[in-house]
Amino acid sequence: MGEGLRYVGAAERRARLGLRHRLAGAARAGSPEEVADSLVALHGTDPATVYLAVGARLAEPAKTVVETERALYEERALVRMHGMRHTVFVFPTRLTAVVHASTGLAVAARERASLVKHMATAGAPDAAWLAEVEASTLAALARRGQATAAELAADEPRLRERFVYGAGKSYEGVHTVSTRLLRVLGVEGKVVRGRPLGSWTSSQFRWAPAPAHPELDVAGAQAELLRDWLAVCGPATEADLKWWTGWRVTEVRRALAATGARAVSLDEGTGYVVDGDVDPVAGPEEPWAALLPGLDPTAMGWQRREWYLAPELWPSLFDRSGNVGPTVWWDGRVVGGWAQRGDGEVVWRLLEKLGSVERRAVEAAVAVEAERLRGWVGAARVTPRFRTPLERELSA
Known about the structure:
single chain, alpha+beta, 13 strands
């Protein structure tokens, strides 16, 4: 622990989490926009995660689906796009330029170079041909407003061209130009995911033109993104910040210095908070329970998770790639997992050892949250994209 620095223990970190992540009862939000603003980013790899993460944090979740779709697809107050670690997130629209400059540009350069290289290796047409197809595709998308890859290929047939990726390798496969090109255009900030073809749980997305945004200075954008995230998730270590952003450690340190972040002492070493956030934070007045979905931004918010998730629970709650499944929370820590069965029933299991009095309190609170969740999910059936051992067992 850092000598002379204020110590922030696990209990205070959990208190901050409950309030700033909109999970404690009195801290719940009034709209999806408030949730996204509070969390900076909602994981969007699994479409259902966005809605489940919002619903868990709304004071009145009955209109979760309607209000989230309004924000995403009608008002465009929220945008689904590639962000940190080349992962799909949902961001407040105000942050699209910041995310693009701070994390997207570097990834986009690598993705385009990779596509051109793979096409050349496969004997596919050259970069000039690809540029023609790209311009034609963007023009078609502008005319349509939003479209699937198949609809765009009807306007620009060259999108259907195929090339072999990784010939002779164990991962050899055949890619269409549309699959790879639309991915590149996404990380370049030229297109974003639009309304899905099916329900809110569907992963069959249309594409839409990206909202216009200014081109920002990379260092300035990184400082702004880090400041926003630390205000929600601080204190956090350099390792947490490097993991969450996907930046080099030199970029993390530069952004910390630019924001005037303050150092504090944590159990795992030195952590950082935004300037003015060093003083102790009082916790919620009442303990709280929450059912958070797989890939929830709170559960996936830090690289070091021991302060809110006991290591012995990890084998049940994570898949082999490190993706977290649905989790049961009690007053700032993970105590179990949950799932939805085929008949719609929400079931859970407590994994952490609790005293009899606390266990009864947790069970009563979780039962309320399960009924709350089932009430707004309705007839929808949600299966996490990345399934974990406990979720599989409970849903069977």
